[in-house]
Amino acid sequence: MVIVMSEESHEYQVKVDWTHDRVGTLSVEGKPRIQISAPPEFDGPEGIISPEDLFVAAATSCFMTTFITFTKKMRIEFKSFSCDGYGTLERVEKGFQFTKLLLKAKVTVESEELVPKAERAMELAGKYCLVSNSMKCPTEHENNVVVG
Amino acid sequence: MIDESRLFPVNLVWTGGKSGSLSVEGKPVIKSGSPTGNPEEARYHTPEDLFVASATICYMDGFLNFLEKMHINSNSFECNAIGVLEKVGRSFEITKIEMKAKVVIESEDLRSKIERALELAAKYCFVGNSMKCPITHETEVIVE
């Protein structure tokens, strides 16, 4: 399959402002602000989005958008997509690092004949997910396509 | 502090277009996706936004952590970050993140300690250390 993508480079700008304790605000132009903090494991409060959450979320979301791109290229439809992402943070020589990412995705399609195509789109999404490809740790995939 | 390893789970459910709802248990939902022309989707955080944000927030957390260890205070901390996405081989990758942090402090005496805390925060930012790309840190410490 020919992957047609633009050659240019893109930039993504974010801003973080500390507000109090271990808490701050994440701003991206034109998007809702998100309150962020260190997680409870690192002395942050409960219930606030942490950088660790966003690291795992970035890969999970990228897997979904890449999967959708491939379904469009392959002209196939799907009824639902959900994915549980698990990032493992471990102590390595120089402090902590994410050592593994596991993405368990479930896709529902309308008929049996779409199953191998959806599986192929998931496989390609895993291979071309730019966020996972920007991380040092390996990403494992458990893909599940069901007819429903 | 955690001793050995810790799992960070997220759940994503597709909601139409190229978007979905990201949930972490007990925390507010984040709408995420890639814009497809729908103005509502343009307000959702892209995966690239979240990736760059994760390193930036981790840098802030590290800085706050070192302030506490060093028993010093700052009046403010803000950081602007830009992540560059480029083609690498056959696919894309974030190839660089540039951070510009600004800290306001009360007195000149604190400057060298604050600069040290910023340096250590950059070195021990474990989210940044989990990424392939180099991360640069430009820092500005102002006395007000």
CATH superfamily of the largest domain in chain B: K homology (KH) domain
Mean pLDDT over the full residue set of chain A: 94
**Judging from the principal axes of the Cα atoms, what is the shape of chain A?**
elongated
Instruction: Give the count of structural domains of chain B.
Output: 2
CATH topology of the largest domain in chain A: GMP Synthetase, Chain A, domain 3
- Widest sheet, order of strands of chain A: 1-2-3
Describe the structure.
The complex is a heterodimer of chains A (148) and B (144). By secondary structure, chain A is an alpha+beta fold. Chain A has two domains: 13-49; 50-147, GMP Synthetase, Chain A, domain 3, CATH 3.30.300. Chain A has three helices and six strands. In chain A, the strands form two sheets. A three-stranded antiparallel β-sheet of chain A has the order 1-2-3, with no helix packed on it. Chain A has a three-stranded mixed β-sheet with strand order 4-5-6, covered by helices on one side. In chain A, β4 and β5 (95-109) form a beta hairpin. The longest helix of chain A is centred in the middle third of the chain and has 23 residues, at 51-73. Chain B has 144 residues and is of the alpha+beta class. Chain B folds into two domains: 11-43; 47-143, 2-Layer Sandwich (GMP Synthetase, Chain A, domain 3), CATH 3.30.300.20. In chain B, the strands form two sheets. Chain B has a three-stranded antiparallel β-sheet, with no helix packed on it. In chain B, α1 (47-69) packs across α2 (111-123). The longest helix of chain B is centred in the middle third of the chain and has 23 residues, at 47-69. Chains A and B meet through β1, β3, α1, β4 and β5 of A and β1, β3, α1, β4 and β5 of B.
